[in-house]
Amino acid sequence: MPDRNRYLLEEARMPGQWYNIAADLPTPPAPPLHPGTGQPIGPDDLAPLFPQAIIAQEMSTERYIDIPEPVQEVFKMWRPSPLFRARRLEKALGTPAKIYYKYEGVSPAGSHKPNSAIPQAWYNAQEGVKKLCTETGAGQWGSSLAFAGGLFGLEVTVYQVRVSYDQKPYRRAMMETWGAQCIPSPSNTTDAGRAALAKDPNFMGSLGLAISEAVEVAAKNEDTKYALGSVLNHVLLHQTIVGQEAILQMEMAGDDPDVIIGCTGGGSNFAGIAFPFLGQQLRGEHGKRRFVAVEPAACPSLSRGKFAYDFGDTARLTPLVKMHTLGSTFTPPGFHAGGLRYHGMAPMLSHVADLGLIEAQAYQQKACFEAGVLFARTEGIVPAPEATHAVKGAIEEALRCKREGKAETILFCLSGHGHMDMAAYQAYFDGNLLDQDYDENELAMALSLLPQVA
């Protein structure tokens, strides 16, 4: 079927296991360290924050981990998600390349985030937890956990980064529709929030600070656990259902990707699409592919960050993890891709980058919105601001193929739609969307404050 544009897996072929890349790495990543002792953490250290099943997944080196049947049943509300061939975009670019995209915006929350929100909520409910607390940037994770919590009878509190809270009011409305409470961060409800407001009453917030607030609430309340939407191993694990489905769908298309692309903030959707394909390569089942992580130029943790031990949050409440970091005190500018405004990159993804298995590219937001508009006008889907970075990366690869006369196959993850982000698109059309650069002095200061680890 040479003109086929859409590849749909039957429900019965949805993967029943998650893939854990830790089983196939040539060297293991550096262990997380206790912030007090500096020693590797154990399960007991994480127990105040996470249920035991999540802790086991966080530390697992098993190649495959079963997806519980109740989680699979919820996934079937929208999974398997579709794979598309972007023929109209190819034609507009005049490229010999073939472009495919895995579309995660078909979930109820409109992004890939429910892939981890559903299992996290289910595991917590199974262990008798009544309340979950979390942070969110653009609101995609917060709305996903609100959705998941409602399904399993959990109260959900979400600390949303203030600049995104103000930019995206309908995300807050979505969370409240599903029964969650949404609080702008920094807030007066936590010590971390009050300290930030005392220093700067107009502080726009950051994901690092919102994490501090959510972790503080979970640590102080026995009936509350913390849920995280990216960065940690168990979240990346949950997202690998995306890449596993894509492998099967590329086989349906009779094609195979030369280049695999995803946007990166904390690393979850990029790992989700890339790790199953990278696992094939690490096991010797496939030749070398290119894996391209696309990040915002205003918050380039892979491109400019230091690979070092750092805290995952601003108030330094979390364990120390070795990752590409801009420094836990670094505050990115308030650009519209709020889900990518995080100072660090997932430790597992950072380790893979350190091994030279992936590469990073960074683009300013106006160029990404330009790519998003072209994609919308050719393929019909309006991408979320975060996802425009992946679109931009795919377009650049397709144009490279055009210059070089190469008919390569490009696959990217379109991690979510932008229906809640139309104010950003309007700002782009009105000429009010500006590229924003981080402060070099602030970056230097944040990196100088990295913890000293022997």
From TrEMBL:
Pathway listed for it is:
Amino-acid biosynthesis; L-tryptophan biosynthesis; L-tryptophan from chorismate: step 5/5
Q: Name the domain of life this protein comes from.
A: Bacteria
Q: Which cofactor does it need?
A: pyridoxal 5'-phosphate
- What keywords does the record list, in alphabetical order? Amino-acid biosynthesis, Aromatic amino acid biosynthesis, Lyase, Pyridoxal phosphate, Tryptophan biosynthesis
Q: Entry's PROSITE patterns?
A: TRP_SYNTHASE_BETA (PS00168)
| Pfam families, per database record | PALP
Enzyme Commission number(s): 4.2.1.20
Which chain positions lie within coiled-coil regions?
none
User: What catalytic activity does the UniProt entry give for this protein?
Assistant: (1S,2R)-1-C-(indol-3-yl)glycerol 3-phosphate + L-serine = D-glyceraldehyde 3-phosphate + L-tryptophan + H2O
- Kindly give the InterPro entries that the UniProt entry links to this protein: Trp_synth_b-like, Trp_synth_b_CS, Trp_synth_beta/beta-like, TrpB-like_PALP, TrpB-like_PALP_sf
- Looking at the record, the residues that make up the Tryptophan synthase beta chain-like PALP domain are 78-416
Modified positions (N6-(pyridoxal phosphate)lysine) are 113
Q: Which Gene3D superfamilies match?
A: 3.40.50.1100
Q: Which family does it belong to?
A: Belongs to the TrpB family.
Q: How does it assemble?
A: Tetramer of two alpha and two beta chains.
Q: Supply the name of the protein.
A: Tryptophan synthase beta chain
Species in which this protein is naturally found: Uliginosibacterium flavum
